[in-house]
Design brief:
heterodimer; A: 451 residues; alpha/beta; Rossmann fold; three-stranded antiparallel sheet; 17 helices; globular; B: 306 residues; Vcp-like ATPase, Chain A, domain 2; 2 domains; 25% helix; flat; methyltransferase (chain A); TRM6 (chain A); nucleus (chain A); tRNA (adenine(58)-N(1))-methyltransferase non-catalytic subunit TRM6 (chain A); transferase (chain A)
């Protein structure tokens, strides 16, 4: 399979059998050749200037023309040799300081010597990569911020975690890596299904997915209010109808089944392969009469297959709902594009007391709101709003200095610890907070003064 | 209770964290018949703690109350008895991720110091991993052993009392990662390399001074480490405050109602962000940086053996 990376294309076949961390050179045919540690050959000319007082930028220091260089490249000459040629044909190279020579060579090497190192996927690699390449897909969650989340959330083997993320599954993957297949994770997802594009990059073994559950965010309210169980508790369809007839009126039943089909069709959209399949069967359903016999048979199989999948999904959903309603999760991680306040206020209900929670947001303001609302709700302590700055350094003899400051873009975290809610107080104050803004902000002022 | 596993209820012999509010807390060792004094009064372990759920509110003798929390490495870091300068959670988190630690990892650490990082490492590599930690100070090594035993994690850690620069980690070719927090890490790079697995691993060195980093980087290069990368991480904490700013009187107040006039010209000023309460002021929520913050802890140098 052909792969394009940094304007190079190549085949991965030759890389098989080598250890992780092996460096390869790309040849003209797109093949990879392992590259060994090369002795620095360019250091033989130890001639160098001390400063740049006599170096003039006349644009004529390089004697090779663009065409010459292209010709060298077309001939398939090794990048290393091109760099050597460039140095030899540079009139100013000898006058440059030693450091400037070094820098010149490094720059040219980067351009002409295409080397690729193949490494093992990890949270470190993937989060750095996503932040550099597709920050929009992970809500600009910088890797050091993700690291904070994992630590503040006390993520470890054996936990029962609730994760709500819209970061392409990167946060989920990071949590899975830290849990090493021990314990369970419940992923809350918006829309039709959880996105796990980044999760699949980790290459987790299959058992890691055995205790990975998912639950639709749109069902959280019904689960909290207790209306969820009547909808989907029975796993058999016949039972389903019976139970519903017993407990609900006819109109209710209709509504519910409508809701269910709606939900199921949306679930399907997430699974691309299934989607087309299902659409086919649905079309056929409509034009049933026109269809031929064999097609009908096929259709029946499809329908049966579909139903089987639906039952399975529903069964899983019920299992997950049961896990949630135990309300004893060991932590909550939120990193999404949604406003964090409603997520937190609802999802914290599922978390046991004395457990950490962490919310990520690209912006600070929603977390200020969330902070205030959590204070009003109660049941949380040690609330902390924070941000990390990351500074990379160039460390070379006599040339050490900070590289670049990354600030702002890494996002913000709100973290805290759950405690047992005071009986009596919570519900009324929660409602109060929703109804009236003004008194609540006054109250916060008092609270702020306290801390 | 264990630092590597959650428990529901408080038991005799547990280490628990007493939370007094405003980030003030301290650890207690739960024991039958013992009492703990707080500014809100006395806590009697037998009746007030044992058998209660973690996260409960405990009313003290003077009517005040505290929360009792399950210990975590992060809470421990904030409360542990200092025997040395310690690493805080901000640095610990990036170290853990950059060293690619997970359940099952084998880690070497030196020095053990006060065990702040050690607890976090043990948490992450449990239940199948192991920490080999080396401390050249005999009393500190002894104290660390005792703590690990008390915290129910002794099976996950081996404390060795020797000089890592001279004698290494006491293990070879088994580690996935090595962490160094010693005054002269460059003298231990060779030992670190031999402690790491033959197929490779990650290393991190923590140093407060750039000169130390310089020498460490040179040593790492000499021993064939690749991907050498030095970074620094800073934590900024914000206080959430409601702030009100007065609107200056520019002389127009007499003609139109200044507060409503301001509000209508500022639709974004509604909702949670802020509302104008009194005439002539605007209120809003802000995250205010602390007056003083930690400006520097140390440089973290990471590298790969491959």
């Amino acid at each position: 399979r052909k792969i394009i990376f940094e304007k190079q294309w190549f085949y991965l076949d030759n890389a098989i059998g080598h250890t992780y961390g092996t460096t390869f050179e790309v040849t003209s045919g797109g093949n990879l050749q392992p590259k060994q540690e090369v002795e620095e050959s360019t250091t033989e000319t130890k001639e160098a200037g001390t400063d740049n007082r006599n170096i003039v930028d006349d644009g004529k220091s390089q004697k090779l023309t663009h065409d010459d260089i292209k010709a060298l490249k077309d001939k398939g000459i090794k990048g290393q040799e091109i760099v050597q040629q460039l140095i030899e044909n540079s009139t100013t190279f000898r006058d440059k300081t030693e450091f400037a020579q070094d820098k010149y060579i490094k720059k040219k090497k980067k351009k002409y010597e295409a080397v690729i190192t193949i490494v093992k996927p990890s949270t470190r690699i993937l989060s750095t990569m996503y932040y550099a390449r597709e920050p929009g897909k992970i809500n600009h969650l910088r890797y050091d911020t993700l690291a904070q989340m994992l630590t503040l959330g006390n993520i470890r083997a054996g936990n029962k975690m609730i994760v709500m993320e819209t970061c392409a599954g990167l946060v989920l993957g990071a949590v899975m890596e830290r849990m090493g297949g021990y314990g369970s994770i419940i992923q809350m997802y918006p829309g039709g299904g959880p996105v796990r594009a980044a999760t699949s990059c980790f290459g987790f073994p299959k058992p890691f997915f055995d205790n990975l559950h998912e639950f639709p965010l749109s069902k959280v309210d019904s689960l909290l209010s207790g209306t969820f169980s009547t909808e989907t508790l029975p796993s058999e369809p016949e039972d389903n109808v019976l139970a519903e007839e017993e407990s609900n009126g006819l109109t209710d039943e209709k509504q519910i089944s409508l809701q269910e089909t709606e939900e199921e069709s949306t679930t399907e959209t997430a699974m691309e392969i299934n989607q087309t399949e299902e659409q086919d069967t649905m079309d056929i359903n409509v034009e049933d009469a026109v269809c031929k016999e064999n097609k009908e048979k096929e259709n029946k199989d499809n329908v049966r297959e579909k139903q089987r999948k639906q039952w399975e999904r529903r069964k899983k959903l019920i299992e997950t709902a049961a896990l949630l309603t135990e309300k004893n999760a060991d932590g909550l991680i939120v990193a999404s594009k949604f406003h964090p306040t409603p997520l937190l206020l609802s999802l914290l209900e599922f978390v046991a007391p004395s457990r950490p929670f962490v919310v990520y947001c690209q912006y600070k303001e929603p977390l200020l709101d969330c902070y205030t609302k959590l204070r009003e709700r109660g049941g949380v302590i040690n609330l902390k709003l924070s941000e990390t700055w990351l500074r990379n350094y160039q460390v070379l003899p006599d040339r050490s200095h900070p590289k670049l400051t990354m600030s702002g873009g890494g996002g913000y975290l709100l973290s805290g610890i759950t405690v047992v809610l005071d009986k009596g107080k919570p519900d009324s104050s929660h409602l109060e907070a929703l109804k009236m803004e003004e008194p609540s902000s006054k109250r916060c002022k008092v609270q702020d003064l306290h801390c | 209770m264990s630092f590597a596993e959650y428990g529901d209820t408080i038991k005799d012999g547990d280490t628990a964290i007493v939370f007094l509010g405003h980030e003030s807390m301290f650890p207690v060792k739960v024991q039958h018949g013992t009492v703990t004094q707080t500014k809100y009064g006395v806590i009697r372990h037998s009746t007030d703690l044992i058998g209660k759920k973690y996260g409960s509110k405990v009313t003290c003798s003077k009517g005040g109350w505290v929360f009792i929390l399950h210990p975590t490495p992060e809470l421990w870091t904030m409360n542990l008895p200092h025997r040395t300068q310690i690493l805080y959670s901000t640095d610990i988190s990036i170290i853990t991720m950059m060293l690619e630690l997970k359940p099952g990892s084998i880690v070497c650490e030196s020095g053990t110091g006060s065990g702040s990082l050690s607890h976090a490492l043990i948490r992450t590599v449990a239940p199948t991993g192991h920490l080999y930690t080396v401390e050249f100070h005999q009393q500190r090594a002894e104290k660390a052993r005792e703590e690990f035993r008390e915290h129910g994690v002794e099976h996950l850690v081996t404390v060795t009392n020797q000089d890592v620069c001279k004698n290494g980690f006491g293990v070879s070719n088994i580690a996935d990662a090595v962490f160094l927090d010693i005054p002269s890490p460059w003298e231990a790079i060779g030992h670190a390399k031999s402690a790491l697995k033959a197929e490779g691993g990650r290393i991190c060195s923590f140093s407060p001074c750039i000169e130390q980093v310089q020498r460490t980087c040179l040593a790492m290069e000499e021993y064939g480490f690749t991907e050498i990368n030095t970074l620094e991480i800073l934590l900024r904490v914000y206080n959430v405050r409601t702030i009100s700013l007065q609107i200056p009187d520019l002389g127009q107040a007499a003609e139109d109602n200044s507060s409503t006039g301001f509000d209508s010209s500022n639709p974004s000023n509604q909702g949670s962000l802020g509302t104008s309460l009194q005439q002539g002021t605007v209120q809003f929520k802000s995250g205010v940086p602390l007056r003083e913050m930690v400006g520097h802890t140390g440089y973290l140098t990471f590298a790969t053996k491959s």
